[in-house]
Amino acid sequence: MEQTIAAIYKNPTAFYNQKVRLSGWVRNHRAGKQVGFIELVDGSYPESLQLVYSADRGEAFRDVSLGAAVAVSGHLVATPEAKQAFELRLTELDLVGGTAEDYPLQKKRHSFEYLRTIAHLRPRANTFQSVFRLRSLMSFAVHRYFHEKGFLQVHTPVLTASDAEGAGEMFQVTALDLDRLAGQPPAALDYKDDFFGGPAHLAVSGQLNAEAFAHAFKNVYSFGPTFRAENSNTARHAAEFWMIEPECAFCDLDGLIDLAEDFIRAMIQTAFEEAPQDIQFFNDFIDDGLIQRLEAVQAAGFSSMTYTEAIDLLEKSGQSFAYPVSWGLDLQTEHERFLTDEVVKGPVFVTDYPEDIKAFYMRGNDDQKTVAAVDLLVPGIGEIIGGSQREERFDLLAQRLAAKGMSTEAYQWYLDLRRYGGTPHAGFGVGFERLLMYLSGMKNIRDVIPFPRVPKQINF
Amino acid sequence: MEQTIAAIYKNPTAFYNQKVRLSGWVRNHRAGKQVGFIELVDGSYPESLQLVYSADRGEAFRDVSLGAAVAVSGHLVATPEAKQAFELRLTELDLVGGTAEDYPLQKKRHSFEYLRTIAHLRPRANTFQSVFRLRSLMSFAVHRYFHEKGFLQVHTPVLTASDAEGAGEMFQVTALDLDRLAGQPPAALDYKDDFFGGPAHLAVSGQLNAEAFAHAFKNVYSFGPTFRAENSNTARHAAEFWMIEPECAFCDLDGLIDLAEDFIRAMIQTAFEEAPQDIQFFNDFIDDGLIQRLEAVQAAGFSSMTYTEAIDLLEKSGQSFAYPVSWGLDLQTEHERFLTDEVVKGPVFVTDYPEDIKAFYMRGNDDQKTVAAVDLLVPGIGEIIGGSQREERFDLLAQRLAAKGMSTEAYQWYLDLRRYGGTPHAGFGVGFERLLMYLSGMKNIRDVIPFPRVPKQINF
Predict the structure, then answer these.
(1) Which end of chain A is more exposed for a tag (fewer CB within 10 A), N or C?
(2) What is the pLDDT of residues A398-447, one digit of tens each?
(3) CB-CB: which of B26, B158, B455 is closest to A195?
(4) Does A396 touch chain B (CB under 8 A)?
């Protein structure tokens, strides 16, 4: 049976003096006069395995190039005096696939900017091995967390007839032939001919659909791709990203905040317990304050303040900001970062935002000015979670829709949830990539997405 | 602490004579002269919990309507002589949310067709409670299966510049204003102005991207929404569905077939072990041959035949088919169903299809006529898995691209995977909804998707 490098690192003594078969790729190769050394990687572990062969094996061994795919076997031997604790003494080596001479991942440091231009090869680079292992682990951890808590997963639709959910610009989806449309009279644009018989868009959230399911299964969540057609070229925005959205019936804002804190803590714990080597890698090479920061979060509590208190703190801070600070204006990233990085020095929930800057579905507070919204801000990132208690009172929700100029007809089904066994309910959204950036210290969202989609970039 | 109905059913004796708090919805209510009975559901379990109260509790209890949301508490009492083994004797009942009189889910059987028109409420109906609990469980089971096998999950992009991956019609995605486009001269359609600076589509598969990751992590899988703009109104097709796509480096067709069989067996086992009541429900009310059929699959092996053998069997069957049978033509659903339902009477792998009817990336066999493709056919459904070994030989892949009139420039990155440490590799795709139909006996794909999208249907 083939082994993985992870299995060997996890329990090397079980393999000592055993014959071991492996396959993977050559990370480094030094062919000396007496002895050759190959560093083998197979994606399972942050460290490579050292393969050793004697020079009399000849060219079949000596000519193996950097990046080549090989299948090998040999005996694993403890080497207590060497840098590595063990090495594999090769008896067989099959060249499965060589590399052309222009292989871009030569043995040197490449910038993240350059590696983005070879997104099909960058998962082989050290940093991206750790990034995408962490991404896979955390994706599983999200599902496991909610599954163990009895949440039902609901696959909310990506395609939606709605064009205004208040969460950002939307992409349009069509099966019409645009080449034929241009040049036709305006009346030629008839959505009755389109696939769905009307305009269709890519959903910016699965929340409204998840609310319907929360009223049948109480606690539900969705986790899937989400889309924004916002032309913003920042390190925190992508046109396509994954979002985690739990939604709980019979739940108010306090219950939601408890869930959000528990969720973030569980994710940090998973990263520490199940990817310790990758987290250490990020701490060593990406962000040397990472482990200390995450450990501090686990040791202390999450702070909490109202939006009104946050504005007060910002106004009194003496700090000069690029964007204005005033009650009624939304917090910008610089404000969020100041609150979490400088004031609280840790995660902080900001609650009860002005109604006018929040979406129509958020529950009105008794002060008639604010809504039961909550954002979680974390150091180095800013907003990582946004949520709210939802307006469950039919009349108030209908008023909000009307006040925002939205069609009550289009939202009839959503209003129905308030007419038939409605409950106080609440939910939040976590940007999965922001969570990964928080857990890894990676600074650009493009570097935690396998094939990022941003303005003017849709390669691969 | 609040309990769930599932927790009580799983270990009722732990709750006997204890005070229990619950919340959920009223499935049925009989207010007698002496005693009232409420059937409570909370989405966690296929059975309801019987709540009992004495009539002197008055209107607050008696007036609770079907579908209402309630929070209750009382003592759980064993009732060995009654139909139910236990009941909750109510001491408190809070009406959280009532139901308007026109509540559509009254106590009678509704057709699946009707329930599709109220997709926001149907998850409260018995059948859809079981369907969506199974969907959630199986989604988790997919992730757990691959996680435990060491597969890395990769989130392949939904947005793609490719418009021809050979798996079906694609939706176009745009941020252009189509209302302004119609009526302009043809030159007005300039994709340089569009979000990505070129045409964009919704991916029909994540395979090509997954191949890149398989060459960094060996065994990977994707599991996400997939799109087809095919105007086919069948019980097996939807415009948006979820697909599971494992991709393995250092793997040939035989290895892939082993994985596919192991995967299907593991999914059946999970359904039996972790959703026995839901599977029993499907057997009782949806498909009375379900359990027998799935048990037979677990007991026997999966069969295998080549496409050439399949054509031979079909030609000699004496069966009359609507579509012609001839070597070189693709198998239609009626042919697949005949092979799996009638000939094999169980799951069957069909391998080695003619090159001309399969996608460009499938590996050519030595006979120069067929490719190393495999479909898994199962009774009642037809094709549930489609996969292949991929063409890893650079020259042959480039030839196939050219022969199909595809741009080698657009696929340069994909060709690169054959130039830099390439390996024999293979992968398959499983339609998640078809898997659910197979495990539940549900006959229409619209009834296993929370909010189905099909031609002219994009409500909710």
Answers:
(1) N
(2) 999 999 888 888 899 999 999 999 999 999 999 999 999 999 999 999 99
(3) B455
(4) no
Q: For chain B, how long is the longest CA-to-CA vector? A: 85
Contacts of B136 in chain A (CB under 8 A): 147, 152-154
How many Å apart are CA A140 and CA A158, to the nearest integer? 21
Separation between Cα atoms, residue B363 and residue A57, nearest integer Å: 33
DSSP string of B412-459, one letter each residue = HHHHHHHHBS---EEEEEEEHHHHHHHHH----GGGSSSS--BTTB--
Work out whether the CA dihedral A98, A104, A107, A110 comes out positive or negative. Answer: negative
Please report, for residues A276, A294, A298, the alpha-carbon distance to residue A270 in angstroms, rounded to integers and kept in the order given.
Answer: 9, 12, 12
In chain A, which residues have their Cβ closer than 8 Å to the Cβ of B159?
227, 239-240, 453, 458
A303 has a chain B CB within 8 A of its CB: no
pLDDT of residue A408: 87
pLDDT > 90: percent of chain A: 87
Amino acid identity at A109: R
Per the CB < 8 Å rule, is B139 touching A157? no
Which of A376, A374, A373, A384 shows the shortest CA–CA distance to A432? A384
Kindly report the average pLDDT of chain B as a whole number: 95
Q: Give Cα separations from B169 to A78, A194, B92, B155, B231 (angstroms).
A: 56, 14, 57, 22, 9
Looking at CA atoms only, how far is residue B94 from chain A in angstroms? Answer: 12
- pLDDT at position A244 is 98
- Residues of A within 8 A of B103 (CB-CB) are 419-420
CA-CA distances (angstroms) from residue B107 to A8, A112, B66, B175, B277? Answer: 60, 61, 8, 46, 22
Lowest-confidence segment of A162-171, A237-246, B50-59, B259-268 by average pLDDT: A162-171
- Shortest Cα distance, chain A CAs vs residue B230, angstroms: 9
**Which residue is it, tokens 């549930």?**
B384
Question: In this complex, which of B4, B155, B459 lies closest to A161 when CB atoms are compared?
Answer: B459
* DSSP per position, B188-228: G--GGGSTTSS-EEE-S-SHHHHHHHHHHHSEEEEEEEEE-
Three-state SS at B331 = coil
ipTM of the shown complex: 0.96
- Helix (H) or strand (E) holding A46, with range, is none
Residue A418 is classified by DSSP as H
Is the minimum CB–CB distance between A134 and chain B shorter than 8 Å? no
pTM of the model: 0.97
User: Which residues does A343 contact at the CB level (< 8 Å), separation at least 6?
Assistant: A313, A317
pLDDT in tens, A120-174: 999 999 999 999 999 999 999 999 999 999 999 999 999 999 876 566 789 999 9
A263: three-class secondary structure by DSSP: helix
What's the rounded Cα separation, in Å, for the pair B338 and B341?
5
Write out the two tokens for A27: 């990370």
